[in-house]
Backbone:
């Protein structure tokens, strides 16, 4: 059913806005395995590490001292200052910690706020297919219209500026990019980002760049979109602590953007959230002050796992291009002739390995499954053995 058509079987008590959202293809799938034992999960997209203890401890100590109140709507000033300094040191960005940054409940909230702050009903937001599951839902909740740009394995799932430009209309409000990418692990070369910046400039379009995986690249440099020449005034950069510092459950992220946009986002945030969780903000301060070596260590470890899984998937006959970022492998399952949902369900039932059907991320994900390799090498190797058995049985 198209997203904007009302489903008559849905209860009238529920708003059309909520009814327009489809249940997440990921959640639906994880409900299936909730009661199964002995499953190796390559499903959930989060680090298998606990947050480094010195980061957690900073929050514990602050709680012991009774630091449990709301903070400023925008976030603790020290955290804003440190985040802005981090962005300056890493990417040479210049943002004002008092007017151009908002601490949020993860990038999830920042995404939602960005859409609600800039999208009018009927406005179009261009994004890739496949893409992170929340992207189109956030646009739909803001009463906008997601417009998809297909990407493919031949192009290593990098989006081409000309394909974006071909979809620009007079309703285009923003281009939403997310690299390193979930679910593909793709990283965008600087040249291609520059070409997107040129398209955005020509059409006066805002670019929202979700860089939650910025620290997770392997053998290539991450280019921060907001650091490209001349883009700052039309860019909303989203970042967070979940993936790099293994802090998914703390729920802390941020948006940096020109002050008018941050002011609009802060208005919505102050009425809906008030302030990001105080202990999480304290932990994030510690992460920025002393967490760098943890990030480096974890990234080295993800890289070892990445190499094992990519080689292993190719060896068992599931072609997998080499992802250069995030912690996902996105192998093609076309050789089995199954849909990605069929493949994932059968693999779970027969071999107890959980992967996510590529279709959960858009039509262009249909011939693929997402395998998160942020899990132990032993589990990755066992999962590959099981998947190898499975593919041998079903390969056409
Ligand atoms: C591309 C992308 N953006 C945003 C998020 C949400 O991150 P956070 O935990 O900061 O809300 C995720 C989580 O998986 C993601 O993959």
Residues:
């Amino acid at each position: 059913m198209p997203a904007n058509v009302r489903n008559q079987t849905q209860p009238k008590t529920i708003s059309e806005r909520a009814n327009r959202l489809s249940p997440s293809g990921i959640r639906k799938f994880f409900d299936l395995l909730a009661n199964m034992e002995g499953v190796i999960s390559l499903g959930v997209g989060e680090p298998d590490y606990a947050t480094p203890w010195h980061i957690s401890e900073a929050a514990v100590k602050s709680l012991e001292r009774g630091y449990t109140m709301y903070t400023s709507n925008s976030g603790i000033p020290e955290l804003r200052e440190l985040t802005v300094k981090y962005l300056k040191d890493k990417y040479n960005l210049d943002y004002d910690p008092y007017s151009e940054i908002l601490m949020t409940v993860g990038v999830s909230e920042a995404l939602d706020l960005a859409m609600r702050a800039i999208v009018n009903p009927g406005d179009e937001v261009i994004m890739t297919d496949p893409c992170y599951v929340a992207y189109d839902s956030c646009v739909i909740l803001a009463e906008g219209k997601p417009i998809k740009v297909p990407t493919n394995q031949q192009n290593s799932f990098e989006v081409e500026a000309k394909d974006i430009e071909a979809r620009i209309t007079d309703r285009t409000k923003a281009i939403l990019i997310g690299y390193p990418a979930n679910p593909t692990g793709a990283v965008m070369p600087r040249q291609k980002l520059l070409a997107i910046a040129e398209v955005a400039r020509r059409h006066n379009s805002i670019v929202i760049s979700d860089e939650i995986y910025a620290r997770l690249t392997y053998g290539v440099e991450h280019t921060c979109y907001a650091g490209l020449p001349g883009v700052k005034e039309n860019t909303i950069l989203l970042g967070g602590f979940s993936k790099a510092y293994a802090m998914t459950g703390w729920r802390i992220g941020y948006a940096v953007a020109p002050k008018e946009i941050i002011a609009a986002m802060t208005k919505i945030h102050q009425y809906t959230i008030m302030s990001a969780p105080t202990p999480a903000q304290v932990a994030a301060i510690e992460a920025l002050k002393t967490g760098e070596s943890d990030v480096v260590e974890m990234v080295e470890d993800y890289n070892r796992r990445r190499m094992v899984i990519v080689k292993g998937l190719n060896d068992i006959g599931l072609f997998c291009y080499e992802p250069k970022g995030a912690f996902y492998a996105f192998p093609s399952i076309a050789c089995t002739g199954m849909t990605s949902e069929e493949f994932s369900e059968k693999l779970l039932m027969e071999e107890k390995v959980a992967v996510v059907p590529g279709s959960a991320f858009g039509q262009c994900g249909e011939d693929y499954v997402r395998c998160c390799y942020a899990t132990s090498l032993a589990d990755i190797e066992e999962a590959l053995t099981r998947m190898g058995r499975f593919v041998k049985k079903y390969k056409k």
